[in-house]
Fold this protein.
Amino acid sequence: MNLIWKVIGMLIVTAAILTIYSFSDYEARIGGVIIKKTKIREFILGIPDDPYGKSITRRDTVNKVQKQEPMDTTSQRIMIIGDSMLEGLMLRLKDYTAFNHHDLRTIIWYSSTTDYFGNSDTLSYFIKQYKPTFIMLVVGANEMFVSDIIRKRNKYVKKMLKDIDTISYVWVGPPNWKEDTGINDMILNNVGPMHYFPSKNLNYKRFKDGAHPTHESASMWMDSIASWVMNKSMKPIVLKMPLTKSKNSPNTTILQPLR
Amino acid sequence: MNLQRYIDFLFGYDKSSPMMFNSGVFLILFVFFIAIYALIHKNKISVTIFVIAFGLLFYYKSSGWYLWVLIFTTFADYSFAIIITKAKQQIYKRLFLIISLCISFGLLFHFKYTNFLLLNFHAITGTNFQPLDIFLPIGVSFYTFQSVSYILEIYWERLKPTRNILDYAFFITFFPQLVAGPIVKANYFLPQVAKPITIKKEDVYAGLWMVMIGLFKKAIIADYISQYNDLVFANPSQYSGFENLMAVYGYTLQIYCDFSGYSDMAIGIAMIMGFDLGINFNFPYQSKNITDFWRRWHISLSSWLREYLYIPLGGNKKGKVRTYINLFLTMFLGGLWHGASWKFVFWGAWHGIGLAIHKATKKVLDKVPNRLPTNAISWFVTFHFVVFLWIFFRANDLNHEVYKHVEDIAINKRTEAKIVHSKGHNTLIVSMFRNDILVDTIKQPLAETGNNLRIKKEVTAGTETIIVNQVEDAFHVAWSIVGNITTDMDFAYAFPFLKVRYLWVILLVIGFAMHSTPGNWNLKIKESYIKSPYLLKLIVFVILVQLVIQFKSADVQPFIYFQF
């Protein structure tokens, strides 16, 4: 009889430990492996478990407020900046920019995340240096499984948007290979649907790492992005589909991952 | 604070996530349950009502308002037991037995086999078929068999009816075994219900140990390794023979860990409460012949089948040929119990044939010397016979896989998918997506699900119809796995496989190692845990729970046996 209370005590102590850990900002690691948290905190505070949940309402609200501007048919200085997913996209984007008489600047920051950009002046530095008229952000693939992402990363997204200021931009979402923990929704809620291309629902053939789309698949991905930018984005620019595919990469600035 | 949200979480029904022992909501409910249980367990009536109420809540959280089916079955069979007992003439006893069996099996048949019957009828007549929207209440196969065991025991006068409806309801709704067994026979469990509840000191920690072992098997090993197995079984032709073979071994371990893990949790929880549900698995993959396998695998089902089907059919008392036929028929029906599909019938029938062959050759086999090489050969043959048949058990027709795929995409896009079978091909109707740019994307994953799919898209007002022709059935999928293993085997894949899927391999090795250890080792480890200091027990428990969280995949794997 007394033993049952000991078992109950065991269950309660375990639940208490998990609850305290889920509320703490500390993220424990053992040999590089992050000790995951439960979603007790999210449950108690009413943060939706389903990343779609509440944001659907917000997304629809934003939809009503945002109104598409007329297409800018002038030649653009396009800057595409982001993580390693750019490797696949930039080849095809080069075709688009050449075909549509735009200028292209490519910056790959390997392993970059919103906190890389949020904690540095990298984005504002390249904006000042290149003075783009249109920015494509490809950031998020390295943060697909960050727990409690809104609390940890939302501020960095806001900082990036502050850096971009009034420049036309689109944010290309990560090509999910698994359901994310909220990165897509967090970006969408900050930028609104007309600045955000949701890549997660597309299907990709991927390299052996299981994450990066193959060149052919990335080329199709870029086709979808271009079509969306020209037809559905907030500030459409001309991105007609080029007739040929080149195999040469554009000139690219490469930034190494932070240690 | 939103009180309604907490009430829904604790007491509401969510069709997409039926409550399981390894869910957080069960942990919370169980803490309250066991605390109250500990306080009132000596008051027979209070504790009986309380456990029944908790059982009904547990079932409601698993199957929603199909709870009424459970309640109806309970009342019906309780009443029939009394009627059968009171009937003076044998003919009336038999009549009421038949009525009771018709009701029990009729309900089971309705929920489980109606679409299967219609599908086959339309296949024979060559007419169009649209499956009826019938929900399979969780655990219906399990509690039906339990209540049938009660009625048959009463009819054979081997058991007296329970003193009151509460004792019988306690037996049927006893939540540890309610939704997924073990199928506890009435003559085994009801005597325990009749006695005062005694919680033995040694049983509490032994029960906790069982729960922990079960949790490890189900939530860590089975759920993790299933992710790779699912990929291969959904599209075997895309993988090499070696990868197919790994998935087959993986599924062999997965189904064992999934089912026996859940059984262990059920048995452990019952043990903490002072009840004995028996054992359901006894290291089945250590068997050296197929008869031995069925004495070790899903013991509660095989003993139910033996007692209430094989023996009434005549068992081994009516000559050799009848014995073989009886074995075959028992396993044939046992296969059908697992699901309304020919693949389960095939699986069961071959196990029946295996049992009959073993029975026929037993005299010769018994003369084989009991030495290591012969034992190794016997084990190898038995194990691979079982493994081979698991391929058919697991394989789904591509129609099923395609539909699952479409449904996933539809859910992702917050729309609905509905399947319509029609003559010669299957038609999948999917509501038009809100973002029309992405409509075409549905075709690509469909195309990737099988080699022989011809996909055509038709857009009509508001809906998009995807017509999928030449859908492969489960047998084609199973044979293509067998074909890949036998004709495309290249061990050069082994090293890259190890490199990429090292965690999967580690868990596979741990799973089989746990299964291969001698029984007394397990007993010693269990005793060491029971004797260990409380703090150490607590640390082990916390580590285990954290491991479950660590390994939990984004999509929690459903329990395999819920489908039965």
About this structure: The first helix of chain A runs from residue 2 to 23. The radius of gyration of chain A is 21 Å. Confidence is low (pLDDT under 50) at residues 50-64 of chain A.
